[in-house]
Design brief:
Elements (H helix, E strand, L loop, with lengths): L3 E4 L2 E8 L3 E8 L7 E3 L3 E9 L2 E5 L2 E5 L4 E4 L5 E5 L5 E9 L8 E4 L5
Antiparallel strand pairs: 1-2, 2-3, 3-10, 4-11, 5-8, 5-10, 6-7, 6-9
């Protein structure tokens, strides 16, 4: 079985992983947001499946909903914030050379991590 993890902002499940990529489905609870973060060894593509979110990329905030997608490269600051009343669900595709959870540099975090 692939990895599943509960987080203070919601949860995620790994759908697929290989030496060249990792694919996750991520649920963000209403009112919660992920840390404002960047990665040294991976880029990400997000495809929003459900819910209403604000996505911050290098300080610029965009409103996103089902069918919207966004890409950010290695080293780009990013965050997603659920601004609706239902879970935000998105699929994250990571590409790069390393996909561990320890490749997260948190610049700001609501949960003190």
């Amino acid at each position: 079985m692939l990895e599943k993890s509960e987080r203070p902002w919601g949860r995620y499940e790994v759908l697929q992983e290989s030496p060249t990529h990792k694919v996750k489905c991520i649920w963000v609870s209403p009112g919660k947001r992920l840390s404002y973060q960047r990665h040294a060894k991976r880029a990400e593509h997000w495809f929003i499946v459900a819910g209403t979110a604000e996505v911050t990329i290098n300080g610029e905030i965009s409103r996103m909903g089902p069918g919207d997608s966004v890409d950010f490269g290695i080293g780009v600051l990013h965050r997603i914030h659920n601004i609706g009343n239902d879970d935000v669900i998105f699929v994250e595709v990571q590409t790069g050379t390393y996909f561990g959870e320890d490749d997260i540099e948190r610049v700001e975090d609501d949960f003190g991590r």
